[in-house]
TrEMBL record:
<dbReference type="InterPro" id="IPR029055">
    <property type="entry name" value="Ntn_hydrolases_N"/>
</dbReference>
<dbReference type="GO" id="GO:0005839">
    <property type="term" value="C:proteasome core complex"/>
</dbReference>
<dbReference type="Pfam" id="PF00227">
    <property type="entry name" value="Proteasome"/>
</dbReference>
<keyword id="KW-0647">Proteasome</keyword>
<dbReference type="InterPro" id="IPR001353">
    <property type="entry name" value="Proteasome_sua/b"/>
</dbReference>
<dbReference type="GO" id="GO:0051603">
    <property type="term" value="P:proteolysis involved in protein catabolic process"/>
</dbReference>
<dbReference type="InterPro" id="IPR050115">
    <property type="entry name" value="Proteasome_alpha"/>
</dbReference>
<protein>
    <recommendedName>
        <fullName>Proteasome alpha-type subunits domain-containing protein</fullName>
    </recommendedName>
</protein>
Length: 227
């Protein structure tokens, strides 16, 4: 028989001023697969590290096509991430059919932000256990948007989420002045270097990497230089 605490619907704060539930969720995101995005107004790259998998395991995609001009990836709890993917695809279809336009990179998250914020404030529902990156084209400009479990959404020039993401961000920051004039291959090279810094002991290859590019349309990059 289940037992319920009298504090079931209230988030309690620790003396350090941190919400424990939010800390747990952030740790969950940090345990997810490393995902990196970077780009400029004309080209964007989204790279996901799939890690070591059993030869018997079915390969799961890490980057999802939302529309012809939008792709999304997440790190954290898979079911929550797939719910967000479905949410984005549904809104993308609605915008295309009823408005004949692409999804707005920030406004597309409005309903999701509200729900995520309520989940953060009240304990009746579990918080979203994943963070995500949306790479999309709007008004002929490439945009990168980061979604956080608490409902925060922001534009970024480059971002890394998931396992050892801080190590990847170090490389992204070092090249921050080069993004504006970089082409696709240069952006991929920076992303791979950032990922290699996050996973120095791993041999990166086409089997454990997934790379997508967004220019006029979103497409998967089948071959690229690892050097």
């Amino acid at each position: 028989m289940a037992e319920y605490s009298q504090y079931e619907s209230v988030d309690t704060f620790t003396p350090e001023g941190k919400v424990k539930a939010l800390e747990y969720i952030r740790n969950t995101v940090d345990l997810g697969n490393t995902t990196i995005a970077l780009g400029n107004k004309k080209c964007g790259v989204l790279l996901a590290y799939t890690g070591k998998k059993s030869v018997l395991a079915h390969k799961q995609p890490k980057i999802f096509k939302i529309s012809e001009k939008a792709i999304f990836s997440f790190a954290g709890i898979t079911n929550d991430g797939l719910d967000i993917v479905k949410y984005l695809i549904d809104l993308s279809v609605w915008e295309e059919i009823y408005k004949n336009r692409e999804i707005h990179p920030i406004k597309v998250f409005d309903d999701l932000r509200e729900e995520a914020s309520l989940r953060t404030l009240y304990s009746r529902n579990r918080m979203y256990g994943c963070g995500g990156i949306l790479l999309s084209s709007y008004n002929n400009e490439i945009n990168i948007v980061e979604f956080e479990p608490a409902g925060n959404v922001q534009y970024v020039n480059a971002v890394s989420i998931g396992s050892r993401s801080q190590s990847a961000k170090t490389i992204l920051e070092n090249y921050s002045g080069d993004y504006e004039n970089a082409d696709r291959n240069a952006l991929i090279k920076i992303a791979i270097e950032a990922l290699r810094n996050a996973h120095p002991d791993e041999e990166l290859n086409s089997d454990n990497l997934e790379v997508w590019c967004l220019e006029d349309k979103a497409y998967i990059v089948e071959s690229f230089d690892f050097n």
